[in-house]
Design a protein that fits this description.
This protein is about 15% helix and about 30% strand. Helix 4 (about 170-180) packs across helix 5. It has a five-stranded mixed β-sheet. Strands 5, 6, 11, 12 and 13 form a five-stranded antiparallel β-sheet that branches. It has a five-stranded mixed β-sheet with strand order 16-23-22-18-19, with no helix packed on it. It is α+β, with helices and mostly antiparallel strands. It has helices at about 10-30, 120-125, 140-150, 170-180, 215-220, 270; strands at about 60-65, 65-70, 105, 115-120, 130-135, 160-170, 185-190, 200, 200-205, 210, 220-225, 230, 240, 255-260, 295-300, 305, 310-320, 325-330, 340, 340-345, 350-360, 365-375, 400-405. It folds into two domains: about 10-270, Oxidoreductase, molybdopterin-binding domain (Sulfite Oxidase, Chain A, domain 2), CATH 3.90.420; about 295-405, Immunoglobulin-like, CATH 2.60.40.650. Bound molecules: ligand MTE. Ligand MTE binds near residues 86, 90, 91, 194 and 253.
């Protein structure tokens, strides 16, 4: 397959042209909508082709084959995002797979005992259960355009390209061990059973992306349960990877095979996409993205309406791929002053932390809320994010619009 030859200039040129084409298309889409709806929403009720579950407009914002979670729908919902509210990011469409005939094939030079596992075999292995966030690397992308006046390409998410669930499954380490992982194996590449991803006339093959063996052995889960239920079709049934703290792409859904290799593996998802390209980065782009950024969101409608002169308890959540969230501050005056929020347990590392703060708006009219988190490494959400062409990892404090009205 010619697109596997990532070293050739032809591929790089095609990738650049593809980025340009996609950019033009997405810029047109962005230009066609105004401030409030600068999310590329399709008409309410139109849904997203290829997603199986219902997508009621009060819970989701459709973006072509993807569905964004509405943050106001998380108010009073608890720590986990219920399966029917969880965002969906599909490159193509959800395949319907029969677990009875499904197999996971492990192959490659990094295994002494290449073999397949059936669904029941994997369920019979000792399991782990963990709260983990899955978040699209492009979550927050639309704010490059709306807050920083910069051009980007890709799905214009606001902040709803994230969800936290309780995942249960077999540790990938145990499965690799059963297949005879060799000491010199370096990369592990899971591949999905969804259709080939074709964009701008280029067939990139099935969604796949290598992760280092060190990460695979550390904490990756081959998950078959989401919030105590079998994985729903849209979220990877019968089996998906859950890669804690890494960009959502790494958590391959509908996994059908895993290649394990003693030499580094490549796919378009770690060469052409999911790297930072742009003026601040080397000509070939940054290293492939791995750990998620740091972000915060209010559990409020976009835009929210609040009555003047009354106390309102504002709720939100913050998360960081670097580690535990240590504190979250909120500003009601465009960042001139910041106020500490009250954090609510649990403070789970690869998931999120909930918080709240009380605000009594004193003036009728438009206002902006800002929330910024600091994590245990000292990383804090900046006022601006360095631009990259694909609009990945927007980590600046997001300007949340609020209309204060007479009570
Ligand atoms: N796995 C396959 N096979 N196909 C996909 O399109 N999308 C990835 C990842 N795994 C994808 C995939 C991306 S970019 C993200 S952000 C997460 O799945 C989204 O998981 P979710 O749809 O369960 O929320």
């Amino acid at each position: 397959m010619p697109y596997e030859d990532h070293s050739s200039e032809g591929v790089r040129q095609r990738a650049r042209a593809g980025r340009r084409d996609r950019g033009n298309r997405d810029r047109l889409r962005l230009a066609a909508v105004d401030g409030e709806t600068l999310t590329g929403e399709t008409a309410a009720g139109e849904g997203c082709p290829g997603i199986v579950k219902p997508l009621p407009p009060e819970l989701f914002i459709p973006h072509e084959t993807n569905a964004e979670m509405r943050w106001e729908a998380m108010r009073d919902v608890g720590y986990h995002v219920p399966n029917e509210r969880f965002f969906v990011r599909n490159h193509t469409s959800t395949p319907i797979i029969d677990a009875a005939t499904w197999h996971l094939r492990l192959h490659g030079s990094g295994l002494r005992n290449p073999r397949s596992f059936g669904y029941e075999e994997l369920l019979a292995l000792p399991s782990v259960t963990r709260d983990v966030a899955i978040e699209c690397a492009g979550n927050g992308r639309s704010f490059f355009a709306t807050q920083q006046d910069q051009e980007i390409t890709g799905t214009p998410w606001r902040l709803g390209g994230i969800g936290v669930a309780r995942w249960r499954g077999a540790p990938l380490a145990a499965v690799l061990e059963l297949a005879g992982l060799t000491p010199d194996a370096v990369d592990v590449m899971p591949r999905g059973l969804d259709a080939d991803y074709v964009a701008d006339g280029v067939d990139y093959g099935r969604v796949r992306r290598p992760i280092p063996v060190s990460k695979a052995l550390k904490d990756v889960i081959l998950a078959y349960e989401m919030n105590d239920a079998p994985l729903p079709p849209d979220h990877g049934y019968p089996m998906r990877l859950v890669v804690p703290s890494w960009i959502g792409l790494a958590s391959i859904k509908w996994v059908g095979d895993i290649e394990v290799s003693t030499s580094p593996l490549a796919s378009p998802w770690n060469t052409e996409f999911y790297r930072m390209f742009g003026e601040a980065y080397p000509p070939g782009g940054s290293a492939p993205l791995s750990v998620q950024g740091i972000r915060s969101a209010f559990e409020l409608p976009w835009e929210a309406t609040l009555a003047v002169g009354r106390p309102h308890v504002l709720h939100g959540r913050s998360w960081s791929g670097n580690g535990r969230v240590a504190g979250v501050e909120v500003s009601f005056d465009e960042g001139a002053t910041w106020h500490h929020t009250q954090l609510l347990g649990p403070h789970v590392v690869p998931a999120w932390t909930r918080w709240h703060i009380t605000w009594s708006p004193q003036e009728v009219g438009p206002h902006t809320l800002l929330a910024r988190a600091t994590d245990e490494t000292g990383a804090v959400q900046p006022p601006r994010t360095t631009h990259n062409e694909f609009g990945y990892l927007f980590d600046a404090a997001v300007r949340h619009p609020v209309k204060v009205v007479k009570g």
